[in-house]
């Protein structure tokens, strides 16, 4: 457990230390074994039939899901009393990361073990769990989650699917169409959201065998072709009242809380995919020759390899820091707590903003990596015989899954504003302090004896800058700020950059003493490379926010704050990138 338990969003106003973060190097032997088992399963059983999966041989998909059940990979988040392992979130995320190498099958796995199963785990009655959970944890049954509709995507609460209680009170009659349901054609149990009397948004457990349930044809998708994606059509489906999940009118709690889990697990999965893509890109760069030499020897290619490795290091650092935050908080909740899973869900919801950050940041790192790997392959990256093409197609959905990246970006400042208004986060007080500090010159000198002193000084500045911008925006727009989406998106990018950069710096500081000299240099090069990139992106977003908020003299003050708080001495950046590129080329994979 960390030295202290941080609240959600607290990183913006509090300085964390290296002992406050969980990092991949902290994995126990048991966790590493589960990761290795998952990786071996993908290598030995999934990859040999991956082409069959891509051509929608769903018999093989279902068989492999049952193999996951035999290996315990469907039990990680399930309580022990229902045949599960009930392991921590770090382990769950590690399994998600390792299974990502299976391509489309990882989507099937994630939908089943995550959003398909967790609503039942968190909100199901004892009878519902006894009836369904064992079937799901063994893979005997496949689970799916039905939220999106043809007319309601990001606006989930605008769903039109209806549920009407029968005259005798024995069942609900469900009608409607659900869109883009992952595992739609292979699922036996659907978590379906519908409005009782067209008003009360509620969840139901619907069996595939119930009369009136049907699925549409497979969607012809750009990528993840080996996963089933269909409509689920409900035509006067009689669902027993005992299959109502949770409380009437409280379906939004189930939908959104489970999506928080889905978001941070997606962060882990795309991190694994990025590692695989980088490895294929590095191997190709070493083998491919142009002008009589391997293209891995050219600076244009080497810089790509370095930037990808640094981005993945950040993605990995961020996602496991979040796992540690959640695990530390959940560990404080005794199992005998009344309404345990209500309290448990509030523990996860505490980090809803960080879950959104993980989803956005990690999916965009993969997008960058996949694009660069295609570029390294040149024309061959456009050909299906090479893996680069599949990474590129499969990647794109991750910026739409689990809420679009735009929706997740808006959630970040939205969460901050809500917490500030409730008095849970002293954002207004800290913003006023930051605004007052603008008129005070800083004469602090860096103590180069402190590990990553430059990066820590930059982090402190970026936090101050965010508070200045947020304070200025809140003062100008007040309650209307919720409608200023362009501004909120820019502020979100600053917050994302801060959390990612702090995760990188704290991880590096924590692990450096135990590393060899050569390894320390490689880690430091990754920190340096990522810091420069993250700062450039944060500065750009901050400048944009400044122009959105002010004009004239007030704008000049904000732009001066951007210049002051984003100063970073990047002397030696090229040497750092070359050193990092050497590590990637030598190992022909992600080097950490």
Automatic annotation (TrEMBL):
Keyword check for Methyltransferase: no
Acyl-CoA dehydrogenase/oxidase N-terminal domain mapped to chain residues: 28-140
Keyword terms, alphabetized: FAD, Flavoprotein, Oxidoreductase
PROSITE patterns attached to this UniProt entry: ACYL_COA_DH_1, ACYL_COA_DH_2
Chain ranges of the Acyl-CoA dehydrogenase/oxidase C-terminal domain: 249-412
GO MF terms held by the record: acyl-CoA dehydrogenase activity; flavin adenine dinucleotide binding
Chain ranges of the Acyl-CoA oxidase/dehydrogenase middle domain: 144-237
Cofactor section: FAD
Name the UniProt record assigns to this protein: Acyl-CoA dehydrogenase
């Amino acid at each position: 457990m960390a030295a202290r338990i941080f609240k959600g969003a607290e990183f913006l106003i509090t300085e964390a230390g290296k002992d406050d973060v969980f990092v991949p190097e902290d994995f126990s032997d048991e966790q590493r074994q589960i990761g290795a088992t998952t990786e071996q399963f993908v290598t030995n059983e999934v990859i040999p039939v991956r082409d069959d999966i891509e051509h929608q041989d769903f018999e093989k998909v279902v068989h492999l899901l049952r193999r996951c059940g035999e290996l315990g990979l469907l039990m990680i988040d399930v309580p022990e009393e229902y045949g599960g392992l009930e392991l921590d979130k770090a382990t769950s995320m590690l399994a998600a990361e390792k299974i990502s190498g299976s391509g489309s099958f990882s989507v099937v796995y994630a939908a089943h073990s995550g959003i398909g199963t967790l609503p039942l785990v968190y909100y199901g009655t004892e009878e519902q769990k006894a009836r369904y959970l064992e079937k799901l944890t063994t893979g005997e049954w496949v689970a799916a989650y039905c939220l999106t509709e043809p007319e309601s995507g990001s606006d989930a609460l605008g769903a039109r699917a209806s549920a009407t209680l029968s005259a005798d009170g024995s069942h609900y009659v469900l009608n409607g169409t659900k869109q883009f349901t992952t595992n739609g054609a292979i699922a036996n149990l659907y978590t379906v959201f519908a409005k009782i009397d067209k008003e009360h948004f509620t969840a139901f457990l619907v069996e595939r065998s119930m009369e009136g349930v049907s699925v549409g044809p497979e969607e012809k998708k750009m990528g993840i072709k080996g996963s089933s994606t269909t409509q689920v059509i409900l035509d006067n489906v009689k669902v027993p009242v005992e299959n109502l999940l949770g409380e009437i009118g409280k379906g939004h709690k189930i939908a959104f809380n489970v999506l928080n889990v889905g978001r941070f697990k997606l962060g882990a999965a795309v991190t694994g995919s990025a590692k695989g893509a980088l490895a294929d890109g590095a191997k190709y760069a070493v083998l491919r020759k142009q002008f009589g030499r391997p293209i891995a020897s050219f600076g244009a290619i080497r810089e790509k390899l370095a930037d990808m490795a640094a981005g993945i290091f950040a993605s990995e650092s961020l996602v496991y820091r979040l796992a540690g935050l959640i695990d530390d908080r959940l560990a404080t909740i005794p199992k005998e707590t009344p309404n345990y899973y209500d309290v448990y869900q509030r523990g996860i919801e505490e980090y809803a903003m960080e879950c959104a950050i993980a989803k956005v940041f990690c999916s965009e790192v993969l997008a960058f990596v996949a694009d660069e790997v295609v570029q390294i392959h040149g024309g061959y990256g456009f050909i299906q015989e090479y893996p680069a093409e599949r990474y590129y197609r499969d990647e794109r959905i991750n910026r739409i899954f689990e809420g679009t990246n735009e929706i997740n970006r808006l959630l970040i400042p939205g969460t901050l504003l809500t917490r500030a208004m409730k008095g849970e986060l002293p954002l207004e007080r800290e913003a006023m302090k930051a605004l007052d500090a603008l008129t005070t010159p800083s004469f602090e000198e860096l103590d180069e004896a402190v590990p990553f002193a430059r990066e820590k000084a930059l982090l402190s500045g970026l936090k101050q800058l965010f508070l200045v911008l947020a304070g200025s925006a809140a003062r100008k727009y007040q309650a209307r700020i919720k409608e200023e989406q362009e501004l909120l998106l820019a502020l979100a990018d600053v917050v994302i950059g801060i959390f990612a950069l702090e995760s990188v710096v704290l991880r590096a500081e924590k692990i450096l003493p135990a590393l060899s000299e050569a390894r320390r240099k490689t880690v430091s090069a990754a920190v340096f490379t990522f810091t420069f990139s993250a700062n450039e992106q944060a500065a750009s977003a901050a400048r944009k926010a400044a122009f959105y908020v002010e004009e004239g003299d007030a704008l000049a003050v904000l732009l001066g704050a951007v210049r002051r708080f984003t100063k970073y001495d990047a002397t030696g950046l090229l040497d750092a990138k070359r050193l990092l590129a050497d590590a990637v080329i030598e190992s022909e994979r992600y080097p950490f």
